[in-house]
Amino acid sequence: MKTVKTDIIPIRQQFAKLKGPHELNLEAICVFAAIGFFLDQDTYWKDEVVLSPASMHTIDDDGFLIKSESWFRWHYSPSNETFEAYLNEFTSLFESIIEEKTLGKQVILPLSGGLDSRTQAVALRQLDKDVNSYSYSYKGGYPEAKLSKSIAKICNFRFEAFEIPKGYLWDTIADLAKINNCYSDFTHPRQMAIIEKFEAMGDVFSLGHWGDVLFDSMCEENLTADQELELVLKKIVKKGGLELATALWKLWKLPGDFESYLRGRLQNLLNDIDIKNSSAKIRAFKSMYWAPRWTSINLAVFEEKKPITLPYYDNAMCEFICTVPENFLADRQIQIEYIKKRNSKIAQITWQENKPFNLYNYHLNRVPFNVPYRFVNKIKREFNVVFGEKYIQRNWELQFLGKINDKNLKKFLFAEEFNQFIDKNVINAFYDLFKNKNEVYYSHSISILVTLSLFFKNNLGS
User: Fold this and answer.
1) By CB count within 10 A, which of 50, 167, 191, 207 is most buried?
2) Residues 285, 2: contact at Cβ < 8 Å?
3) pTM of the model
4) Cα(341)–Cα(453) distance, rounded to whole angstroms?
5) Over the chain, what is the mean pLDDT?
6) pLDDT tens column, 276-313
7) What distance in Å separates the CA atoms of residue 302 and residue 4, rounded to the nearest whole number?
């Protein structure tokens, strides 16, 4: 008998057995098809669960789950402190977490043009850490690495820029399936394209995942229960995901209908969160169910090569967030003011989400102030298209589009053994929708089908 304590936001999945037959959990797979991650404790199998977050789990010697008890529950308990007091508390907490996790180590910092990694860069510079930083851009896409390089230069970090190549997925897909065990689709972890570079970069990763969720408002603060459910559905159901899940539900002749099943599951999970403020409640929901079952999954790619640290995942950071008033979290105020306070030069670098504006003037990202930039950017994109260069915004565009990619894609979608698991007519229908109707809308469906093909091959194939 052993006891396992899980963090508030677990970095990795831990599994336990349940009594019962070893059968596929088809309902759970349908949910995976719709939202891109497994919900709550679901896995591919009926007799296996993932240990829930923030809980003490008793597991017997054979690996069977005996009981689970929560040691932490998300709450909303703001005090009457000033914004400056909260900013100072964040500053102390954030820097102490990073100091503790990177003490005496050479840090590997993935940089972007956003706020989360920028906040880490400021802290690492403040703490005088030895840092190797890097960034990547898409060929034909926005040159994100230029912003990252500017941040690294100010911080005096070593920096390397990478370009994500077209079709890299097919050379790495078998390894990626083993790393994430097919619990996430394969088109999001672009770090897989440079995984072999990590070995020589340093001792430990400092990753900025989940800062954008903790340090921003999620919605209006006083929604009805029905409105909260609709918001969650809107946030997590992927384009084309509901259609694919419904098709699989019907193919496998599951009882009732998929959408009612999903709504019921989500409503029960929301009802179990005892928070009246809707924004804090949705943040709690995402941190309990989205972060550990989607965001965390592909952290394993980094961890395959080096240890990882995530300051925003830290238990103390989660507990701190529960005490901060929503009006102080809205619009990323704490992170923005922290950066401006600690390093004004970094605050002057373009904020990618509000380009071409920075942390001092991003409020001007509205008509008429942003019209000149938007006009020039549109002309540039159209100019590139004229000369045959597609503007790349998403990783799947590099992996699914073009003749060579299509040939590799069909190898997985139409593998004979996989078509015994999911009927070829269903796959043909979604492949046709992707190719001939709306590639953006149905890219998720295709990506999930590729993932299921690898899962089937690795776990059920001959």
Assistant:
1) 207
2) no
3) 0.93
4) 50
5) 92
6) 999 999 999 999 999 999 999 999 999 999 999 999 99
7) 24
44 pLDDT more than 90: yes
For residue 226, the Cα-to-chain-centroid distance in whole angstroms is 26
- CA angle, 239 as apex, 436 and 15 as ends, to 5°? 125
The string of DSSP letters for 261-327 reads HHHHHHHHHHHT----SHHHHHHHHIIIIIIIIIITTTHHHHHTTS-EE-GGG-HHHHHHHTTS-HH
Does position 33 have pLDDT exceeding 70, yes or no? yes
Per residue in 184-228, pLDDT tens? 998 887 888 888 999 999 999 999 999 999 999 999 999 999 999
Cα–Cα distance list, 154 to 82, 145, 159, 351, 448 (Å): 31, 14, 11, 15, 41
Supply 69's token pair: 């008890």
Q: Which residues 6+ apart lie within 8 Å of 33 measured at CB?
A: 241, 244, 245, 248, 445, 448, 452
67-76, 97-106, 261-270, 373-382: least confident range: 373-382
Torsion, CA 385, CA 388, CA 391, CA 392, rounded to 10? 160
Residue (of 142, 184, 188) closest to 163 by Cα position: 142
Relative to beta strand 158-164, strand 131-138 is parallel
- Residue 223 Cα to chain centre, angstroms: 25
Of the candidates 461, 453, 462, which has an alpha carbon nearest to the alpha carbon of residue 177?
453
Other beta carbons within 10 Å of 34: 28
Quick one: which of 315, 309, 293, 398 has its CA closest to 32?
A: 293
Write down the domain spans for the chain.
1-72+241-271, 83-215+291-364, 371-459
Q: Name the nearest CA neighbour of 211 among 82, 346, 356, 112.
A: 112
Q: Which CATH class is domain 83-215+291-364?
A: alpha beta
